[in-house]
Design a protein that fits this description.
Number of domains: 1
Oligomer: single chain
Helix content: 55-70%
Number of helices: 3
Distance between the termini: 39 Å
């Protein structure tokens, strides 16, 4: 994470934190009585495996990594 008072040091992490907070508290309607650590763990799985991202061509992060990992494996076997 970033130094205190300088959130721009890690803009990508700050953006993900913002998305997570918005989706957990507004979209999924989590409240203070819920088991937050368990919900965060489930949300991370959802974010990586089920939630498509526009910047990844509407693939999930997991699917995007798999495609590029497979492509890298194909290239390395040709050499």
């Amino acid at each position: 994470m970033s130094r205190a008072g300088t959130p721009t040091d890690n803009a990508a992490m700050e953006a993900i934190n913002g998305w997570a907070k918005t989706e957990m508290f507004i979209d999924f309607k989590i409240n203070e009585c819920d088991d937050v650590p368990t919900f965060v763990e489930k949300y991370v799985d959802f974010f990586n495996e089920e939630r498509p991202a526009c910047t990844l061509g509407y693939l999930t992060p997991y699917a995007y990594r798999q495609i590029h990992y497979n492509r890298k494996q194909q290239v390395s076997t040709k050499c």
